[in-house]
Specification:
This protein is an alpha/beta fold and about 200 residues long. The protein is built from ten helices and five strands. The chain has a five-stranded mixed β-sheet, with helices on both faces. Strand 4 and strand 5 form a beta hairpin. The longest helix is centred in the C-terminal third of the chain and has 19 residues. The protein starts with a helix and ends with a strand.
């Protein structure tokens, strides 16, 4: 069953986070919920009430509905290489939470991230250069040699900071307790999501 308006309204931000944690546990243990996608499509045809918005990478291995064992209409997905923040992403997250009622923003990085690897290698190539310039401050802030996966985690934290700094709407919603803004790292080798403090 897809998230309904009633479920979304009653759900707290903390409960939304727990939903994702429980879903990833089911995914890892191959105990996913039985889903009827045709029914979910029909249920959501007249409207959507996702409980969370995921800012994730475009990596083909990190698909939010699968790794959190969610169905049609449960999650908003904003996907961009390196899970970076820009005006379009911020506008999408503001829509998800302030207009459509999502209770949680989760910035989801992952291990073996190609965008983060490219940023650490100072790759310059077409429009990729502009995208990587949003990860470069993270690389520049770290002293010495740091593993790509560690840079990816710092990048998640950097994206969260940018959301709070560059969106007064989302910052105010978080301060008032209407939403949570959290980070997590997905391990592409194990399927496990590690939620950050």
């Amino acid at each position: 069953m897809s998230t309904t308006k009633d479920i979304q309204t009653r759900m707290t931000p903390a409960e939304a986070l727990e939903q994702l944690k429980a879903g990833n546990k089911r995914f890892v243990n191959e105990k996913g919920l039985s889903r009827n996608y045709n029914r979910e499509i029909s249920e959501t045809a007249g409207g959507q009430f996702p409980f969370a918005a995921i800012l994730g990478c475009i990596d083909s291995r990190a698909t939010a509905e699968q790794l959190f064992d969610q169905g049609v209409g449960d999650l908003f997905n904003a996907r961009v290489a390196g899970n970076i923040v820009n005006e379009d992403i911020l506008g999408s997250l503001e829509y998800a939470c302030n207009v459509a009622g999502a209770k949680l923003i989760l910035v989801l990085g992952h291990t073996a991230c190609g965008a983060v690897t490219a940023a650490t290698q100072r790759v310059e190539l077409g429009n990729i250069t502009t995208l990587l310039s949003k990860i470069s401050p993270v690389v520049d802030s770290l002293d010495g040699e740091v593993a790509v996966d560690e840079v990816a985690e710092y990048n998640v934290r950097h994206s969260i900071e940018r959301i709070r700094k560059e969106s007064a709407i989302l910052k105010d919603m978080e301060l008032s307790g209407d939403i949570l803004i959290k980070g997590a790292m997905y391990d592409v080798a194990t399927g496990k999501v590690r939620f950050l403090d």
